[in-house]
Amino acid sequence: MKLLLVFLASLFVLGINGQGDDSRWKEYKRLNGKNYNEKLDGGKQENLRKAIFFQRDANIRKHNSGNHSFQIGHNKFSDLTGKELAVFLGTTSPPSPKLHKSMTVLPKRQTRLPTTLNYRNSFCLPPIKAQGSCGSCWAFTAITPLEFDRCRKKRSFSVLSEQQLVDCDTNSTNYGCNGGWYVTAWSHLTTVNGSASEFLYPYKGSKGKCKYCPECKSMVGARVSSYGYIQSKNATAMQLALQEYGPLATAITVVGSFYYYTVGVYDDEACDNLPVNHGVVVVGYGRYNDIIDYWVVRNTWGENWGDQGYINIQRGVNKCSIETYPAFVVSY
Ligand SMILES: *[C@@H]1O[C@H](CO)[C@@H](O)[C@H](O)[C@H]1NC(C)=O
Ligand SMILES: *[C@@H]1O[C@H](CO)[C@@H](O)[C@H](O)[C@H]1NC(C)=O
Ligand SMILES: *[C@@H]1O[C@H](CO)[C@@H](O)[C@H](O)[C@H]1NC(C)=O
Ligand SMILES: *[C@@H]1O[C@H](CO)[C@@H](O)[C@H](O)[C@H]1NC(C)=O
């Protein structure tokens, strides 16, 4: 009943404020802190952004009026171009498929699986982070599981530095704000024998000179003991690995609707069977309404994105390739 009322209420609003109406665009700009100075360019930006906004608005309304297991809505991404949106990703393809295979493990423990598991509110996960307009998701994807495992072992929390990876991990397949791969990031942290603390090496969101040195012991907040891939396309193995290792790094394919996710279980068919382009962290799993299984996925687009920074993605069908490259890391 509540849902129906909301639906009727939104129809009413749409009836009054049809497409093209300035008031919703103005409200959007106000809510999202957007400000395009028309005096600077004769309104070029304003008109471009407004046109994109109403195009997305039409897509959002169309989607939400259909029978879908997830809903989408406006956010800071609503008036960005496709090129601008792509900057918020940053995972390249896995550097070496051969390496991927040779490193793959099955979880050691074969205990009975609980029906749900969720680290989302764990003391050992820091608040949601924001990568900004820098394709550094691979660094965040590498750091979060390491922070978790270190915290679980030491029983105290230490926020670690993504900027160290952005600045210093230039030896392999990782390219600062231009993409990278979380498993090679762990390889780098192993080589240099340390992951710096965030407060000593804070995030800037652009590539700079490396400030970490092998002698920089006082900077170190954690060290990598081991890491590897979980067997590919095996959701059960991932569930067991979540229990055994904590949150898992993985890669997914992000397509348009993903940017505007608000609630429900994400199951867009558009993201299937395309190359992965974004790194995220799986922090749990569950089942919605006794019908649809999902992963609880942590993103790095700030707390005001998605469901307070998180998204539920369909589980067990390799949705958006989320089950193709899951990986774990263990700290000392
Ligand atoms: C909506 O989709 C679900 C799952 O696909 C289906 O079971 C249900 O019958 C659909 N409802 C309507 C009204 O089409
Ligand atoms: C850089 O790459 C070389 C060759 O792959 C490797 O031997 C070396 O340990 C790497 N150095 C760092 C700092 O990752
Ligand atoms: C890595 O750092 C730890 C702690 O400072 C030290 O005990 C260890 O010997 C180092 N390992 C290598 C290979 O340098
Ligand atoms: C998937 O993983 C589970 C748990 O580790 C294992 O028992 C099972 O054999 C795996 N399935 C395949 C097809 O390898």
TrEMBL record:
Leader sequence segment: 1-18
Keyword field: Disulfide bond, Hydrolase, Protease, Signal, Thiol protease, Zymogen
Ranges where the Cathepsin propeptide inhibitor domain occurs: 25-85
SUPFAM superfamilies xref list: Cysteine proteinases
Pfam families linked: Inhibitor_I29, Peptidase_C1
Domain Peptidase C1A papain C-terminal positions: 113-330
PANTHER family: CYSTEINE PROTEASE FAMILY C1-RELATED (PTHR12411)
Protein name (record): Uncharacterized protein
Native source species: Daphnia magna
Lineage: Eukaryota, Metazoa, Ecdysozoa, Arthropoda, Crustacea
